[in-house]
């Protein structure tokens, strides 16, 4: 009897996960059987390390609230919509229909277009908040993992945003793509979907390898990431998504020496490093067109190669922050940079 029940519940789990992975509806009975199987499978308790902190989960969180678009899409890509109470994100205007996990936006409640707060997560009865330092978490807004813990709410910190040696002003502890793969694999353990996580990571690695296979030999075009800012540009250091997107796409990231994730520099530094290409981060109220017009009209940049030769490429915000869209962004930029070389 015990063997038969184990086989039945194992089959229920596999069926539920398969259906969830392909976007099909999963019945409440299937979910219950899958949950029962997870409890009896010996998977829990499971201990994981996140940004240097070890946490033990006795079961999979059931009411996760995420902050920001890329973080929500990590959950969607893993097929974890049924474990989410909602997501907080601005009114993202990018293409949601082009991704395999697009159904997540219909299945999961959009809780707020504004800043995540304790009130939002309490109202959602969250048992876990998935956000990042300066991606929701911060002392300035009094929203921290330590503060949530006092309310009985767990936290998972986006690895791209891990504080460097606990330093509140410097973020990043590993290369950006490694951070994405780490989060997928770690969350796979937390939610008992390790096979799904492995399939995603393997697919993303292949997508990157395929893009790199078409990169010609020779000198790499130098690339600057422009996020926003008129007086001082906000850009990417070595630990934010654009670094790996640029370098793995065949470019030479001009700000690779900055041991931080997102940070500001001076326009004098940009002029001095004279990038061949500028990548614009498209988001917010200032459009990509407006950003491009500013770059082309800003007198100090007139002699910069990218501006002079009109080599300005646009990627969406969710392409550039840690998200499951990073590999596709590498492929898109690789194709553009190949064209730059051939001109």
TrEMBL record:
The keyword Signal applies. Residues 1-20 form the signal peptide. Keywords: Signal. It comes from the Bacteria. Gene3D superfamilies: Nitrogenase molybdenum iron protein domain. The keyword Signal applies. Residues 63-343 form the Fe/B12 periplasmic-binding domain. Coiled coil: none annotated. InterPro entries: ABC_Transporter_SBP (IPR050902), ABC_transptr_periplasmic_BD (IPR002491). Belongs to the bacterial solute-binding protein 8 family. PANTHER family: IRON(III) DICITRATE-BINDING PROTEIN (PTHR30535:SF7), VITAMIN B12-BINDING PROTEIN (PTHR30535). This is Iron complex transport system substrate-binding protein. It comes from Streptomyces eurocidicus. The lineage of its organism: Bacteria, Bacillati, Actinomycetota, Actinomycetes, Kitasatosporales.
């Amino acid at each position: 009897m015990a063997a038969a029940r184990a086989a039945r519940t194992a089959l229920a789990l596999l069926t539920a996960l398969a259906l969830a992975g392909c976007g099909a509806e999963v019945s409440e009975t299937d979910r219950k059987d899958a949950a029962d199987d997870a409890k009896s499978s010996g998977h829990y308790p499971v201990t994981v390390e996140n940004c240097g902190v070890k946490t033990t989960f006795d079961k999979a969180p059931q009411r996760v609230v995420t902050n920001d678009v890329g973080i929500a899409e990590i959950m969607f890509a893993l097929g974890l919509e049924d474990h989410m109470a909602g997501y907080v994100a601005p009114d993202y205007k990018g293409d949601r229909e082009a991704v395999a996990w697009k159904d997540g936006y219909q299945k999961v409640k959009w809780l707020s277009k504004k800043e995540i707060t304790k009130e939002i997560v309490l109202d959602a009865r969250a048992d876990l908040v998935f956000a990042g330092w300066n991606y929701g978490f911060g002392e300035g807004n009094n929203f921290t993992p330590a503060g949530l813990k006092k309310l009985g709410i767990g936290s998972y910190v986006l690895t791209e945003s891990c504080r460097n040696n606990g330093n509140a002003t410097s973020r990043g502890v590993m290369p950006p793509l490694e951070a994405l793969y780490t989060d997928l694999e770690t969350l796979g353990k937390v939610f008992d979907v390790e096979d799904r996580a492995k399939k995603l990571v393997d697919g993303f690695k292949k997508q990157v390898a395929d893009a790199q296979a078409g990169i010609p030999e020779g000198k790499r075009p130098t690339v600057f990431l422009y996020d926003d800012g008129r007086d001082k540009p906000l850009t990417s250091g070595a630990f934010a998504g654009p670094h790996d997107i640029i370098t793995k796409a065949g470019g030479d990231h001009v700000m690779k020496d900055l041991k931080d994730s997102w940070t500001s520099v001076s326009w004098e530094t940009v002029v001095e490093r004279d990038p061949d290409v500028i990548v614009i981060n498209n988001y917010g109220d200032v459009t990509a067109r407006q950003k491009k017009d500013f770059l082309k009209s800003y007198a100090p940049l007139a002699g910069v190669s990218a501006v002079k030769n009109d080599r300005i490429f646009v990627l969406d915000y969710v392409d550039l922050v840690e998200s499951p869209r990073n590999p596709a962004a590498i492929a898109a930029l690789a194709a553009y940079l190949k064209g730059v070389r051939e001109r």
